[in-house]
């Protein structure tokens, strides 16, 4: 009788046990048939849009198109200014942003990232026939006029020298600094070195100082809405293929042609953040 009661109690426990366990993991929401991808329109070598046409070119455009093929989805590009990228993700105007988007702790508080797919540091662009700047001291201690875009890492890094070893010219956008350099209104233009390679390729009278970099390493990732771990995991898997099966080198060489491709290649991807945090 006792054994019969024990068997009955054990059976009842096993039947009730699943109800006391953890909540089931929700099935990831599948990607929509049409992906809205935020991009910029005026970054040579990275993302440009030829006015009056559907023609877009650049590394980030090539990456977006490669992902479109891998994911078997259609893509609609959404034009964004750099300062609009986070808001577009927060307001769900786009599914992702592919636009030289630096991964930072501050940004991770409000959006997610898949990546990095590229690394770089701050660099310097000069006119091809100007050889006065060769090193960091030449840049910061010889009273050169250096142009930076507002809110960029280069502005942050060079601001302490403003009025003490250089004159800082601040433009609202990168294109403004590039035009000032070409028109001989400033001595140099500073931002992410790989972005400068794109500008240099568009105007052959300028050149990147390949041996002059400064500041912390910048890591570019694909921006995603916050707590979108399932999409992040999916994109991270594809980015590993992209990085290590040849397309990364092909796209970088074709669009930017830097001196040392390997210097810009990430060793690994960051883990995707837990969507519940």
Taking Cα atoms only, what radius of gyration do you get, to the nearest Å?
A: 24 Å
CATH class term of the largest domain: Alpha Beta
The average pLDDT score comes to 89
Q: What is the count of β-strands?
A: 12
CATH architecture of the largest domain: 3-Layer(aba) Sandwich
- Provide the domain count: 2
CATH fold title of the largest domain? D-Maltodextrin-Binding Protein, domain 2
- CATH H-level homologous superfamily name of the largest domain: Periplasmic binding protein-like II
Q: Low-confidence spans: pLDDT under 50, at least 5 residues?
A: 1-28
Strand content: 25-35%
Helix-residue proportion:
25-40%
Task: Give the ordered list of helices and strands.
Answer: HEEEEHEHEHEHEHEHEHEEHH
Q: What does this molecule look like?
A:
With 277 residues, the protein is of the alpha/beta class. It has 2 domains: 34-120 and 218-264, 3-Layer(aba) Sandwich (D-Maltodextrin-Binding Protein, domain 2); 121-216, D-Maltodextrin-Binding Protein, domain 2 (3-Layer(aba) Sandwich). 35% of the residues lie in helices and 25% in strands. The protein has 10 helices and 12 strands. The strands form 3 sheets. Strands 7, 8, 9, 10, 11 and 12 form a 6-stranded mixed beta sheet that branches. The protein has a 3-stranded parallel beta sheet with strand order 5-1-6. A hairpin with a 3-residue loop joins strand 2 and strand 3 (47-49). The longest helix is centred in the N-terminal third of the chain and has 19 residues, at 2-20. The protein starts with a helix and ends in a 22-residue tail after the last helix. Belongs to the bacterial solute-binding protein 3 family. Residues 1-21 form the signal peptide. InterPro entries: Bact_solute-bind_prot3, Solute-binding_3/MltF_N. Keywords: Signal, Transport. This is Solute-binding protein family 3/N-terminal domain-containing protein.
């Amino acid at each position: 009788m006792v054994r019969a009661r024990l068997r009955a109690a054990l059976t009842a426990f096993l039947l009730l046990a699943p109800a006391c366990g953890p909540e089931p993991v929700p099935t990831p929401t599948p990607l929509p048939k049409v992906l809205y991808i935020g991009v910029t329109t005026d970054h040579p070598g990275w993302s440009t849009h030829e006015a009056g046409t559907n023609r877009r070119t650049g590394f980030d455009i090539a990456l977006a198109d490669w992902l479109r093929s891998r994911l078997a989805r259609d893509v609609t590009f959404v034009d964004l200014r750099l300062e609009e990228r986070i808001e577009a993700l927060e307001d769900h105007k786009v599914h992702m942003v592919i636009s030289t988007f630096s991964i930072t702790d501050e940004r991770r508080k409000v959006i997610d990232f898949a990546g990095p797919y590229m690394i770089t540091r701050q660099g310097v662009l000069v006119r091809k026939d100007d050889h006065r700047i060769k090193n960091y001291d030449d840049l910061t201690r010889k009273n050169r006029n250096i142009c930076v875009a507002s809110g960029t890492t280069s502005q942050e890094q060079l601001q302490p020298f403003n009025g003490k070893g250089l004159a800082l010219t601040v433009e609202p956008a990168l294109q403004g600094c590039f035009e000032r350099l070409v028109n001989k209104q400033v001595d140099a233009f500073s931002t992410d070195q790989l972005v400068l390679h794109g500008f240099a390729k568009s105007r052959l009278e300028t050149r990147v100082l390949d041996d002059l970099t400064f500041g912390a390493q910048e890591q570019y990732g694909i921006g995603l809405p916050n707590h979108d771990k399932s999409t992040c995991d999916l994109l991270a898997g594809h980015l590993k293929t992209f990085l290590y099966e040849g397309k990364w080198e092909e796209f970088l060489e074709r669009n930017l042609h830097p001196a040392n491709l390997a210097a810009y290649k990430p060793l690994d991807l960051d883990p995707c953040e837990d969507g519940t945090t």
